[in-house]
Amino acid sequence: MEVTRKNYKDSLSTVYSAIEEADFLAIDGEFSGISDGPNVSALTNGLDTPEERYTKLKKHSMDFLLFQFGLCTFKYDQTKSKYITKPFNFYIFPKPFNRTSPDIKFICQSSSIDFLASQGFDFNKVFCHGIPYLNQEEEAQLREQTEERRNQQANGVGTPSFISPSSSKGPAHVPEEHKDFINRVVEKVEALFSNSEKTLDLDPCTGFQRKLIYQTLNWKFPKGLHVETVETEKKERYIQVSKVDEEERKRREQQKLEREQEELNDAVGFSRVIHAISKSGKLVVGHNMLLDVMHTIHQFYCPLPELNIQPFFFLLLKADLQDFKEVTMCVFPRLLDTKLMASTQPFKELITNTSLAELEKQLKENPFKSPQVETTERFPSYDTAQEQLHEAGYDAYITGLCFISMANYLGSFLTPPKAYISARSKLIEPFFNKLFLMRIIDIPYLNITGPDLQPKRDHVLYVTFPKEWKTSDLYQLFSAFGNIQVSWVDDTSAFVSLSQTDQVQIAMNTSRYAESYKIQTYAEYIQGKEKEKPGQTAKTWGEDGWVKSNYTSSTTSGFGYPRYAWTADPSVFRKRSISPVQGAQGTEEALIADGWSHYSYPDSTGSKKMKTDGV
Amino acid sequence: MEVTRKNYKDSLSTVYSAIEEADFLAIDGEFSGISDGPNVSALTNGLDTPEERYTKLKKHSMDFLLFQFGLCTFKYDQTKSKYITKPFNFYIFPKPFNRTSPDIKFICQSSSIDFLASQGFDFNKVFCHGIPYLNQEEEAQLREQTEERRNQQANGVGTPSFISPSSSKGPAHVPEEHKDFINRVVEKVEALFSNSEKTLDLDPCTGFQRKLIYQTLNWKFPKGLHVETVETEKKERYIQVSKVDEEERKRREQQKLEREQEELNDAVGFSRVIHAISKSGKLVVGHNMLLDVMHTIHQFYCPLPELNIQPFFFLLLKADLQDFKEVTMCVFPRLLDTKLMASTQPFKELITNTSLAELEKQLKENPFKSPQVETTERFPSYDTAQEQLHEAGYDAYITGLCFISMANYLGSFLTPPKAYISARSKLIEPFFNKLFLMRIIDIPYLNITGPDLQPKRDHVLYVTFPKEWKTSDLYQLFSAFGNIQVSWVDDTSAFVSLSQTDQVQIAMNTSRYAESYKIQTYAEYIQGKEKEKPGQTAKTWGEDGWVKSNYTSSTTSGFGYPRYAWTADPSVFRKRSISPVQGAQGTEEALIADGWSHYSYPDSTGSKKMKTDGV
Q1: Contact status of A476 with chain B (Cβ, < 8 Å)
Q2: In chain B, which residues have their Cβ closer than 8 Å to the Cβ of A102?
Q3: 3-class secondary structure for A106-172?
Q4: Is the pLDDT of residue B34 over 80?
Q5: Which of left, alpha, beta for B288 (phi over 0: left; psi -120 to 50: alpha)?
Q6: Of the candidates A107, A110, A135, which has its C-beta nearest B107's C-beta?
Q7: Which of A32, A479, A601, B329 has a 20 to 30 A CA-CA distance from A280?
């Protein structure tokens, strides 16, 4: 169901009840861009810490607009043994709703816009008919402003934009050149009192003149008048004066109050849908959803706090990420990322490509089963054979399908096997609140409800070199040390992961007298960063001159190697040498007893570090 | 004529010849926003110096996208006694043309987007079919890259993204895990030499693998092969190897060269139209065209230089503006701004509203005459009765009409009167290269070909006060000094212009013991700014947090007063008390002899300062 400003109000109850009755929700967002700073490969360095990654995404991705939001609700129908789906595709645009409302600026990235254009994205629908929204602070401000204006008008001191500390005392000071104008208005109003007309429309005039009229009339005629600013079709504003008795005045005030309340709700707009999702507490499923979650919170709840750079930079980074995790848990208490799920045992061995489109295809094949779904009447049903990828509603829909297939697959390990695993099953709890981290070699996910994994990086070197160097120079430099993996940091530095930790010292010794390049251990690099002056740290990303054109050609890393390949940190992912058959002996409870471990199956790579296998 | 990426190449010769044959050109641009920093009233302070205004516009308006460019050519047909017009409406979008091309980011301002949406602007046409462009530096870089790649491939060292200082020496270093792959490729190529096939399509592979293939084949088979990267429909890249004799090899090289040349021209795209306008040296007319000119140069020629803040801040500002003037004269040697023309004598007295739509209407009425125009066949003709305002092509069209009406009106003062005044007439030279300055009280225009006007500002005070203050507080504070005019600078400061210069000292004395506010003379204010540390100056605008929402309610200035009202600086605009009839006694030559003076007619305000008349 497509939802724009035109049908938003009429659709809201449908949306609310769909959320209310659902077993779980799937979401997806489309944005006006991805990175306003470094190119994506620099934005997502393979050896980022979770703190660094979060900080980079916040700094370089939050100024884009989330302009299409997909929501698909899934409700299991026991009698039909199938899911009933209701997909919604919302178009979002921060249309200023009045003169004093926030005038949002957002960045568009040509490559993202061009990509969406090539997928048939309808920009006119976004910009002409997008649903507005307010975050919580803006909503509170607006409520306050409305309240204030109401009080002031009740006290006869005009509209808030024209209130000054002095203007509430006594009659208005009318500047000389406006005296004639105001006197004429007063005469007209006096005439109104003595004739049979009920209302008087004054000529359109300026804001300043309206202020003077409000003040003068409130002072001269404290009773019996209702004074209101009205807009003509041409958006010219004029004042309408009506003779009213006390009852009529109150009725009008009440009407105005209700109208204001409705305008306020209209302004809050799409945020109300997010509030409903949040309040439902339902499981929210997304695919590679970290950016979706960040954008949703940033746009509809509260701007992700700006990093306030201070001496203990790294500690602060951690506090910053911790803040985000806490906010996320308040807004979305249960999240599940299908890309992370597909990248984890037992799916990891079965799924070669975890991009949404490919995942959806693979999950239709053996050993998985296509879920039985049915789209509710009145909702246009999506056909997965006719891919409508990158329409947010469709992406949310197939993300939900992927989740169902994978969840049901887990049921096949139970004794007896279960064909249907609900969104409330303990079997899927191990996947809760872990958001996939793109292209980090050794940390698969951001753990929203606990501390993050801390992989050892003692086989990693930090190398700085002249900007002419390419990946091949690094291969050549380290050719004596076996296979390496390169993660570019910027034009003149990269992380180089050696396959054997014991080679690190040898590499360090060899480089001692080098002039053109410099090698540090990962530990030295981190120490250096912690000592670094805050200003310098900011500079690394701050002067990227994002509006400048930037011919990039050399910072892509790891040509021809798998994009990521991670080993579980042993303390978290205990590997047990059990076959799927052996592992499927217990009950559902036993199966989930020690969390992730049951989803780890014998790894053909044995004890070798996976991160170096790919090289 | 609507021009998008689809018909751009076919239209180019039509555009070129229209420019070539034209008597003058009219232009207009539509942008994705106006100000990314302060709100517009703060961006355009009534007492900005030309340097300040230019610097603010550059800093806060250049990150928007000029995404629709209107060009209307006007050619006078002597036999028909009318202008033949060719209006073009170009849609512009920086679609990245390949993987290494600039990925432009631009800002959208919700209010501007919403306004254009309300005017029926077609965003899909911009984003899906906009014509790309490159500025001169990008074009040069691309030519260089193409040249370099060509040389390198001729020398057999692969594509530039994979070239390293070491890789041109000897055979490629093939990493262990790719040796099998490369050996298989070599075997296949050897087989190609011994069989009857002419070409061999290798399987799609990674960029790194392609690099290895290029290097290996160039080293192993220095002659008789043509190796080329080709893309499948699915955008997968693979290598095609062809057996060729020397002649065939050269022919293919030539073809490739031509293809590359065409791709390069496609990438330069819309900039070629601007180059043609520039090279033509024709008079370019625009309405309130400063931003159009700045954007056009910034987007299609060279980014307006970033301000490099250094100690002598004010001197630097001037150097900065001087740079801009010089660049402008190179790109557009003859400009004419119809808003400035309409705000100057003799038009000033006759035209009450100089907004484009209103101006166009007023110039149809007595004493002006609607120009006789005819749109060339094949060009959809615009009907001014059906306003299509804010479509750039239409705005350019009516801007041209306004210019013709005003120019012809000047002809009525000649003896004998002339009904047609050409774009080359000396009568209009006084209006050349003077760009209207929006809402500056006492400087009507930016003088592109000379020093700017330097009005006296000794009746101006700079007042700082608590942020709660509104305009009315300032009126009250200065109530003893007669009428004032307020120009807000920011939340806590404003310029206050007194009507009498001799009141300045009294106001200063009165404020001596004030605690809540502070008053400086304009001269003191300027001195203070010059002493100010560079960092602080930058801060004033730099931390405006443009993506933050900002409820503005109090910084609008001068409610109810005319937006601007300026007096000519006497040294430039010498006023002569002659009536139009008296003034129209001489020949055309005599009429233009002392520039602007003939367009000044008796001013009903006599010697009073106009800037205070409005108050």
Answers
A1: yes
A2: 549-551
A3: EEEEHHHHHHHHHCCCCHHHHHHHCECECCHHHHHHHHHHHHHHHHHHHCCCCCHHHCCCCCCCCCC
A4: yes
A5: left
A6: A107
A7: A32
Separation in Å, CA of B159 to nearest CA in chain A:
10
Which residue from A minimizes the CA distance to B172? Answer: A472
How far apart CA A374 and CA A269 sit, in angstroms, is 29
With contact defined as beta carbons under 8 Å apart, do A595 and A450 qualify?
no
Instruction: Note the pLDDT tens digit of each residue in B490-503.
Output: 888 999 999 888 88
Whether B476 sits inside 8 A of A166 (CB atoms) is yes
**Alpha carbon of residue B33 to chain centroid:** 12
In A, minimum Cα distance to B614 occurs at A177
Cβ distance of A166 and B553 shorter than 8 Å: no
How many distinct helices (H) and strands (E) make up chain B? 22, 17
User: Is A18 a residue whose pLDDT tops 90?
Assistant: yes
DSSP letter string, B109-176: EHHHHHHHHHTT--HHHHHHH-B-B--HHHHHHHHHHHHHHHHHHHTT---GGG--TTTTSSS----H
CA distance B561 to B563: 6
A chain contacts of residue B93, beta-carbon cutoff 8 Å: 110, 113-114
Is residue B166 scored above 70 in pLDDT? no
Measured in angstroms, the CA of A183 and the nearest CA of chain B are apart by 17
Distance from the first to the final alpha carbon of chain B:
46
Give mean pLDDT, residues A294-322.
74
Identify the pLDDT of residue B487: 86
Give, in order, the Cα–Cα distances in Å from B605 to each of B49, B548, B610. Answer: 25, 45, 7
Partner-chain contact A108 B32, CB within 8 Å: yes
Q: How far apart are CA B226 and CA A81, in angstroms?
A: 60
Q: List strand residue ranges (DSSP E) for B299-449, in order.
A: 335-337, 373-375, 434-436, 445-447
B564 vs B450, more confident: B450
- The rounded radius of gyration (Å) of the Cα atoms in chain A is 31
Note the ipTM here: 0.78
pLDDT range class, residue A228, cuts 50, 70, 90? confident
- Tens digit of each residue's pLDDT (9 = 90 or more) over B341-372: 999 999 999 998 999 999 999 999 999 999 99
Q: A445 pairs with which residues across the strands?
A: A436
Distance from CA of B418 to the nearest CA of A (A): 39
Please, which residues have CB within 8 angstroms of residue A522's CB and are 6 or more apart in sequence? A47, A457, A458, A460, A461, A462, A495
Per-residue pLDDT averaged across A345-367, rounded?
94
CB contact under 8 A, A108 and B547: no
Q: What is the pLDDT of residue A154?
A: 61
- pLDDT attached to residue B568: 31
**With helix as H, strand as E and coil as C, how does B280-295 read?**
HCCEEEECCCHHHHHH
Q: To 5 degrees, how large is the angle CA A479–CA A485–CA A490?
A: 105
User: For A110, which of B62, B103, B479 is closest by C-beta distance?
Assistant: B103
Give the minimum alpha-carbon distance from B381 to chain A in angstroms, rounded to a whole number: 25
Closest Cβ–Cβ partner in B95, B110, B551 for A141: B551
Nearest chain B residue to A466 by CA distance is: B165
Q: Which is more confident, A107 or B554?
A: A107
Which amino acid is residue B201, in one-letter code?
Answer: D
Q: Are B132 and B300 in contact (CB under 8 A)?
A: no
Summarised one tens digit per residue, pLDDT across range B20-29 is: 999 999 999 9
**What is the distance between the terminal CA atoms of chain A, rounded to a whole angstrom?**
46
Contact criterion met (CB < 8 Å) for A173 and B127: no
The pLDDT value given to residue B315 = 54
Does the distance separating the beta carbons of B128 and A124 come in below 8 Å?
Answer: no
Average pLDDT of chain A, as a whole number: 80
- In sequence order, the 6+-apart residues with CB closer than 8 A to the CB of A561 are A485, A614, A615
B260 — phi, psi (to 5°)? -65, -40
